[in-house]
Amino acid sequence: MSQQQGSWLMNTYASFHRRHERLKNYVHNGFRYPLPPWGRAVMGFVYFSLPVIGGYHVMQWAISKSHEEIGERGEKLRNKRIEGIGDKVVVDEATGQTKKVGAGGWGGGVNLAVSNETIQERNLRRLKKWLKKQRKLKRKREKEDAAKLQQTLASKNTDS
Q: Are residues 31 and 19 both part of a single domain?
């Protein structure tokens, strides 16, 4: 980039900044109306909730696009079982020739995650075990909460 292009870019940024500052001053000074405390609380809620609600809708849109492309549970995928794909790149689709990527291969020295069938099965077993443990803990908590509620009700009945 030449000096002239760089200065043009800086002048453009500076001009934009000046115009933006002028607009901000006009809006903040010309249209400002002092809000009561409840109005400030409402505006704070609005300023907080708009990005949250907008982000939620963007996320829902992304999920729907994902379901359109790959299916809700991945049923539209070509490769249902991923095996050793994480560290390879297809060089020639016609012949199916692949090249290793990452440590010891093309592109540098980072070991990339790979997943073969045994690793997938091990991870699935671990996930099922963890979910079973969580269900057990949830049932235990629910029983404890029910017992506390029974005690509270019993104590209120004896007090009356």
A: yes
